[in-house]
Amino acid sequence: MRVLIAGGGTAGHVIPALALAERLAGDGHEVRFVGTPQGQEARLVPAAGFPFVEVEARPFVRRASVRALAGPLSAVRSVRRLGPVVGESDVVVGMGGYVSVPAALAAMRGGRALVLHEQNAVPGLANRALSRRARAVALAFAEARGGFPRRARTVVTGNPVRERILRVAAERERLAKEAAAEMELDPERPTVVVFGGSQGALHLNRSVVEAVRRLPPDVAQFLLLTGRAHLERVRSALDAAPPVRTFAFLERMELAYAIADLVVSRAGANTVAELAVCGVPSLLIPYPYATGRHQEANARALQRAGGATVLLDDELDGAVLAERVEGLLAEPDRLRAMGERARTWSRPDADEALARVVEAAGGGS
Q1: CATH class of 163-345
Q2: What is the phi/psi pair of residue 322, to 5°?
Q3: Which residues make up the CATH 3.40.50.2000 domain(s) of the chain?
């Protein structure tokens, strides 16, 4: 079966798509990607060894303006260009990001099977609009089902997670020792890992700097993943702080998850899925400007399962964050229970479940 996967922009869209691609390729299917030259997919997909087709695609702007015309016009051009590529495929999978729209439209125009994957607990406008014509709409969160038309063929699969992340639960002790050695952390001390997603998060970073300064040095050590734009500012601000290691990002996030006693992060769909499958307790601070407040909905889903606590961004400052972190670390039994509940709620077989949906839609096996 020939599968064309469309999705990208941020790493949060690309990583689950690659997890699906690896599963499909392992099952003997031919997989290609379509994406934009400026998105994360242009780097990550070829590095993973999959063929990559570049197209022009721009986000749709909802406000009336000259710029608002760029998205639809770009989509029209991309639909035409994608015609031959889609025609060579048995099924097109839209994994999110604005490149999914022209790929899905080209699939409908060419009579090819279309599968959509909705990552978030609140579905996006494009997926809602396209869902009526899709063979299947795979959901990462059961909560998203109510956001689609009744006639949409929805199925809950979870959000595919990379194989190396899936190994954390079984290999935590070994990976934690490796993380401690590689990042010069004390394996015997409580470790708080903080990150704001692939782009970093300015407000979160500022609050973390203040929180670390407020906390007694013996409470915890910190691993901060700041994003490239904020690295030097955070490093200079924490020069004389308790044990802190700062990096722009980690290629091997499994090391961070393995050594973490607590993660403080935004609540992107990929982050929530990885935290859950690793069984890591978390304090989630949803990005407040996410469309439809979908990050808050993602965070609340894990909170309801008992695997996370939630702090809203408008309540966030250094003092509040320090108090919440210190309070959670003072209850190790509670943290262990949160991790276990997160793991129970997770869907470690999401890549396989989504692959079966794609196979059924495309007539492959």
Answers
A1: alpha beta
A2: -60, -45
A3: 2-161+349-362, 163-345
Task: Tally helices (H) and strands (E) across the chain.
Answer: 15, 13
Give just the sign of the alpha carbon dihedral 253, 257, 263, 269. Answer: positive
The pair of three-digit structure tokens given for residue 274, joined into one six-digit string: 């990885």
User: Cα–Cα distances in Å, from 78 out to 36, 55, 111, 159?
Assistant: 10, 6, 17, 27
- Helix 318-329 vs helix 332-345: crossing angle, to nearest 10: 90
CB-based contacts of 195: which residues, under 8 Å, 6+ apart?
Answer: 224, 225, 226, 249, 256, 263, 265, 266, 271
What order do you get walking across the sheet with 154-156 strand by strand?
Answer: 52-54, 30-35, 2-6, 91-94, 113-118, 136-139, 154-156
Q: Tell me the residue ranges of DSSP E strands in the chain.
A: 2-6, 30-35, 52-54, 91-94, 113-118, 136-139, 154-156, 191-195, 221-225, 244-247, 262-265, 282-284, 308-310
Closest C-alpha to 103, from 130, 125, 128: 130
Q: How deeply is 147 buried, as exposed, middle or buried, from its count of CB atoms within 10 A (0-12, 13-18, 19+)?
A: buried
Q: ∠ at Cα 201 (197, 205), nearest 5°?
A: 115
**How remote is the C-alpha of 173 from its chain's centroid?**
24
| C-alpha–C-alpha distance, residues 121 and 136, integer Å | 17
Compute the C-alpha angle 120/123/128, nearest 5°. Answer: 150
Q: Specify the CATH superfamily of domain 2-161+349-362.
A: Glycogen Phosphorylase B; (3.40.50.2000)
Residue by residue, pLDDT tens for the chain (365 residues) are: 999 999 888 888 899 999 999 999 999 999 999 999 988 999 999 999 999 999 876 554 444 433 433 445 556 777 888 899 999 999 999 998 778 899 999 999 999 999 999 999 999 998 999 999 999 999 999 999 999 999 999 999 999 999 999 999 999 999 999 999 999 999 999 999 999 865 558 899 999 999 999 999 899 999 999 988 889 999 988 876 668 999 999 989 999 999 999 999 999 999 999 999 999 999 999 999 999 999 999 999 999 999 999 999 999 999 999 999 999 999 999 999 999 999 999 999 999 999 999 999 998 65
